[in-house]
């Protein structure tokens, strides 16, 4: 391997939430912080070098998103996921969680209903409740260590006040990479009931084994027209602290509504280092990612086999 993922980097004392501030969530810091998707691998050296080079310039003023910035996103999505995106489909967000908050405010009104498929990433609950919307849960079904969507329950819970479903794809935390068939059935329901889809695809680059991520917006032109997709290099390349994400929709109406709300809350400016990191990661980080995925899959297999041999009462969801 070209990259050394065995190297242990001490993060305590850097004010990272994961290692220094678990007490904010759990009341103590002497814990193994397996509760947050924040890798302890160093970001790709190409990204580190690009940030250092930019930092040496010495001036960190307001920063625009150049054509090359958008081209890096377009190229990445095409190469990795076969999704042909146009520059004019792309808007900005400080992060995917921010994007979800903003999209909820853009596509619904206080009192409207927003659906999540539980168990799911906990900030979704806060995004719905803190914006004054009603939280509707469509629990996933578990059988034999595998989770699936309960689409019958979903249809029963949709009424005239239901405006949005937040789709986690791939799903955090159950680990499902949804199939085209599953996504298509969900899309058909949303089209027939006039439900907009906020598709959180932040983990799409971290799919393991022979699974393949299907971007929701690639299902059909019709589904694409009701979908706002959120992506970011933050989980893929360990860049969460640099606050740079992309929001994508082929619908000029959805994108305009989102972008207007983004502007109204004053969150449209870029992070100078975030733009450099995103562009460099997408343009030069692919070999690093391929090695990372192989390494993480090995870690998963080790953990699965260890638990099976030593703690058989603990179930591992593949």
Protein architecture, described:
With 318 residues, the chain is α/β, with parallel strands linked by helices. The protein is built from 13 helices and nine strands. It has a domain of 217 residues: Type I PLP-dependent aspartate aminotransferase-like (Major domain) (Aspartate Aminotransferase, domain 2). The longest helix is centred in the last third of the chain and has 25 residues. It starts with 16 loop residues before the first helix and ends in an 8-residue tail after the last helix.
Broad CATH class of the domain at 65-281:
Alpha Beta
Ranges where pLDDT stays below 50 over 5 or more residues in a row are: none
- Please bin the fraction of helical residues: 40-55%
Can you tell me the CATH topology of the domain at 65-281? Aspartate Aminotransferase, domain 2
User: Any idea what the radius of gyration is?
Assistant: 20 Å
Strand content: 5-15%
- DSSP helical segment count: 13
Assign the CATH superfamily of the domain at 65-281. Answer: Type I PLP-dependent aspartate aminotransferase-like (Major domain)
The second-level CATH architecture of the domain at 65-281 is 3-Layer(aba) Sandwich
Major β-sheet strand ordering: 1-9-8-7-6-2-3
């Amino acid at each position: 391997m070209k990259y050394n993922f065995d190297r242990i980097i001490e993060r305590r004392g850097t004010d990272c939430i994961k290692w220094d501030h678990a007490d904010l969530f759990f009341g103590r810091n002497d814990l193994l912080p397996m509760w947050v998707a924040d890798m302890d691998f160093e970001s790709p050296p190409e990204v580190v070098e690009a940030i250092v080079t930019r930092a040496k310039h010495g001036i960190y003023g307001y920063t625009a998103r150049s054509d090359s910035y958008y081209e890096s996103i377009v190229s990445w999505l095409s190469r990795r996921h076969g999704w042909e995106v146009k520059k004019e489909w792309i808007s900005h967000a400080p992060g995917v969680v921010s994007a979800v908050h903003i999209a909820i405010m853009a596509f619904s009104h206080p009192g409207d209903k927003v659906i999540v498929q539980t168990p799911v990433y906990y900030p979704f609950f806060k995004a719905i409740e803190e914006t004054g919307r009603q939280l509707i849960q469509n629990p996933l079904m578990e059988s034999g260590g595998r989770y699936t969507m309960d689409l019958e329950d979903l249809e029963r819970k949709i009424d005239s006040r239901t405006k949005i479903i937040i789709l986690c794809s791939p799903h955090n935390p159950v680990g499902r990479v949804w199939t085209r068939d599953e996504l298509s059935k969900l899309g058909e329901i949303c089209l027939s009931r006039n439900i907009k889809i906020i598709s959180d695809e932040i983990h799409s680059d971290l799919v393991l084994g022979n699974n393949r991520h299907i971007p929701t917006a690639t299902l059909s032109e019709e589904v694409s027209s009701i979908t706002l997709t959120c992506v970011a290099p933050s989980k893929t390349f360990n860049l969460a602290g640099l606050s740079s994400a992309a929001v994508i929709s082929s619908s000029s109406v959805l994108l305009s509504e989102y972008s207007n709300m983004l502007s109204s809350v004053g969150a449209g400016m870029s992070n100078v280092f975030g733009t450099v990191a995103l562009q460099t990661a997408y343009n030069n980080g692919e070999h690093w990612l391929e090695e990372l995925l192989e390494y993480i899959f090995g870690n998963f297999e080790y953990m699965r086999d260890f638990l099976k041999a030593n703690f058989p009462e603990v179930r591992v969801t593949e």
